[in-house]
Amino acid sequence: MGEADVALGSGPTPFGKEMKKHFSFAPGYHNLNHGSYGTCPTAIQREANRLRDECEARPCPFIKYRFPELLDESRAAVAQFLGVPRSTVVFVTNATTGVNTVFRNMVWNTDGKDEIIEFDVVYGACGKTADYISETSRDLVRTRQIQLTYPVEDDDFVAAFREAIDASRRDGRRPRIAIFDTISSNPGIRLPFEALTAVCRSEGVLSLIDAAHGIGQIDLDLPSLDPDFLVSNCHKWLFTPRGCAMFYVPERNQAMMRSTIPTSHGFRPRLAQNEEKKISIAPQSHSEFELNFEHTGTYDNIAFLTVPAAIKWRQTVCGGEEKIRTYCTNLAREGGKIVAAALGTSVLDNSTHTYTDCFLVNILLPVPPKEGECMNWRGRPVNISEWMQRTLIEEWQTYMPVYWFKGAWWFRISAQVYLELSDFEWAGSAMKEVCRKVNELLG
Description:
Layout: H1 4-8, H2 34-37, H3 42-57, H4 59-82, E1 89-92, H5 95-105, E2 114-119, H6 124-136, E3 141-146, H7 154-170, E4 174-181, H8 193-203, E5 206-210, H9 222-225, E6 229-233, H10 234-237, E7 245-248, H11 270-276, H12 288-294, H13 307-316, H14 321-343, E8 360-364, E9 374-377, E10 380-383, H15 384-396, E11 402-405, E12 408-414, H16 421-442
Parallel strand pairs: 2-3, 2-4, 4-5, 5-6
Antiparallel strand pairs: 1-7, 6-7, 8-12, 9-10, 11-12
Helix pairs in contact: 3-4, 5-6, 7-8, 14-16, 15-16
């Protein structure tokens, strides 16, 4: 694995402040928003740079021959990590690209009855992708969104999903595919994705799981889950550099994924496929699906090759997945209580605490529920969330996403192995002061 091995020889590092030595944070910066863009340990950064140096030393041999070999090794590593065959896993740059790949490859029925089922917490870009597909298909497909009042228990969440499928059919529509998260973005809550996937399977609806916040945070038991499509960002919680997501498509559905985005050299038009049947061709060691995703154009995709190093780093430096999950989930839950107490508000959770069975916690803000209210930031109007986020950056050297959800302002904090409860105490103090300023300015 190269230079990354140097950092792996000393064994596990205690979680909390001591773990920060493995990351590149600026002095005084509090990284409380790991969930948005992730961050990469310096050992994995060095491994990525080593691979880039190898590429630059001999660009053509590396890109044409060495890269595919390393890519296969990386795919094998993530496949083993998830318990699935290597042939079912490829890499794309991010979860949104994976979602786009699925939607743009769907062939919609010409009677115009197809529907995409989604929840009101769907990630913005993914929801807009569904809208775009509806528009460009000339309404051959449309979106049905499930609106809920939060918090809601998992059983009620699943019941609402079943009802949406039934309602679609009662309306003379055809529910073709459903998109839902493992853990949604804003708010960052864990959804009952396992039960939703089972409903899809029993109802004959394709399941597209946006697991952007999946791999490296929760146990993705893909053989048991058995989704139709799943995409998960490795650069968020698995610790690879940015621009790396695994895209899982079981072999039964691979023929549906005709093209990558953009279309690659691996694409085979149907005419060419028919011609190949007439002549003798050498057997391929990779499927059409695998070859399609092997090279989709020239860009910096070195991050794809760092997955083995990231998995090994997590095992040796962090002590393994279970240790990471236990620490970060408990930290988010206990830290969220501390912050909510400091603000005199509450954490977004349900009675069974499944929302907080993850590394993210959402806290209600004690500011007026005025979504459209504008404030002045350096002579220009901005909304409340923008003002608060910029203030946190400039005055507190941190960032926490502030968002409007169901009639109130909330913010989200990420737990991670380099944080501890004292960081949440500090976050509560910082946000309390920022809220004081907001309330003062709003009168």
